[in-house]
Structure formats: structure tokens, C-alpha cells
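Tutorial sheet, problem 5. The two components below are modelled jointly, 346 residues in total.
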Amino acid sequence: MAVRSILLYPDPILKQLCTPVMQHDPRVDALIQDLVDTMVAAGHSVGVAAPQIGVSLRVVVVDVSGSKLGKKEQNHGLLTMVNPEIINRTGKKTMREGCMSVPDYTGNVDRAEEIVVQFIDRAGEEQVVRSGGFEAVAIQHEIDHLDGLLFLDRVSSLKTDLFRRKG
Amino acid sequence: MQHFALTIIGRDRPGIVSQVTEALYKLGCNIADSSCSILGGQFAMILIIAHPEFAAKESFGNAFTALEESGLSVFLRTLKPGGEKHAKIEGEICMISVYGADKPGIVYRVTKELGERNVNITDLNTKLIGSDEQPVYVMMLEATLPEGMEPDEMKTIMDAIKDEMKVDISVRAITPVEL
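Model answer (C-alpha cells):
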């Protein structure tokens, strides 16, 4: 029920391994609401992870349905994921990623094109969802935050090193 | 703080970067943005640097003499105030690939169209590949389109050059995503 400010690197919370949620109580629901409110308030944001608002718990929200790229593709609308785990990855997709916690910098990142992710939803129910394209990229980016990883840890190529010499 | 642009180029070999940055570190310089790459057999470094007490080129004295003696060419340029900050560039980002049989004027012909339309080139690489008998020229560039221009319009412009120059050109929109 509150828009929280997005923490910026080098805030140490962003590099910590987040703790799994052990009990689905009202505090978790309040955290989810804060994440949704923060994501919506951030305008073009398509996802926020709990450590980005200073909470070191394994909770993320993702919603690509309002974004220019996301609405062109099949997506699940608002996904609220507690203790998410990617149980299968296939394919490869490269996108130029940026992050609200690392302003003014973008980089090309390779991610799985399609994933299957298991999580507990806002109602406390276990879910398994198959996701592809931009939504899958967003989910992978947000789950990385729970492991203390930023897109900077995954940049696959310098901007235009498409034809580095062979040697 | 006064900023300077430092350009260094020399025959590629291991150790150039550490040699240059050691000299800068010992001077007490800060390195802000930099970009370094191999071009042909040369290693080229471009760095924006600053020093808390240096206001003019003269302050560097003969700090780069050792680098020059080791075969590197060094050029230092004093930036005007604010010259270290880039303006916020808004607009669609396009990646343009141009490739084909090598001939004079490929880079000029393509970039002339861009310049005339206020398209801002933010990155450009060219490389001569293929064999001696059949040299192939490859150019990759990234550009920001002026407000109101769509990537499709850029495609149309490039299609015309494609036929005229007999080269292959493709244009892709790049949408950076903030997650």
C-alpha cells in the first residue's frame, strides 16, 4: 500500500542472496502490494524484485502487459511470485537490458527464450507457468535480483562487438 | 573539475592498457568514460580523464614521454567545461548493418543520409573481411533517430542506398528494456 523508493547500486542489499518466504502471512501480502505499487508508480517498469525496495526476501512481481514490447506477445498479465524457481529453460534470446537499480547503463544480455517457473502466488497457491519472449526475460531478470545478481553480471557482449577478429 | 580527452594508439601487444593506466594512476588522474579496441594491428584507446589539480595540458608535463618512447602515440585534448557530460539522447535506436563487395564510398554514402536527417550515430565499426581476391566490407552502426522518425522510415531510406550501391543493408530497431 505504498510506493517505495528503488534502491540503487551500490546498496549492499542488491548483492545479497535473498531468504525464502517461510510463511505466507499478511506481511508477505503487504510486501507484494508495495512491489506492485512501486512497479506501477515507476511508469514503464515491468517488474520489481523485493531487494530493490530493501527487503531481502524471495518475492518478485512482473507485468509486461502494459509495455510496448510485452503487449505484442502472449503474457500472463500481473504475476506475483513468492519463492520462484526456474525449473526449465530452453532457447536463447538477447535483449538490451537496463535496470532501475543501475541507471544510465544498458547492455546486451543472453537469456533463455522460454522458461518454466514454479512459484507460490499471492493467494498462497503453488503455480507452474510456462513463459516465453519478453515476459520470460523479465522474469529471469527479476529472479536474478533474488540471487544478488545484476544484469551487469550477465552482459554477453560489448555494444557492437559483432565482428571481433578471429585472431 | 577540468576534463581531458586522451587518445593513445600503437602496435598491439599485451600490456598497453596497464602501462597507460599505471601512468595515469601515478599522476593522480581519474578515468571516466573510456573505449579501447583493436583496429587492424593497432590498439586504440580513447579516455576521458580528469585530475583534481590539473587545469591545463601543461600540468601533465612530460608524464607521457615514457609511453611515447615505448612506441605509443599520445594525444591530449583539453575539454571545454561540460564537455565530459553527454546530452540525453532521446529517440528510437537502430542498428544498421551494411555489407558487400568492397568499394569506395560505402561509409560516406550511408552516413551522409544519416547526417542530413539529424540521425545521431552513437557507435560505428567497420571491418574489411573476405579474401584478397574478394574483399568484403562490413559496417555496423548504432544510431539514434531524431524525434518523430520511425525505424521503418530508416529502412526505406536504406533500401534506396542498397540498390544504388549494390550492397546489403539491414535495419533493426533496438528497444532497450528497463526491468
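Marking note: Residues 93 and 144 of chain B are 5 Å apart (CA to CA). Full credit if you identified this.
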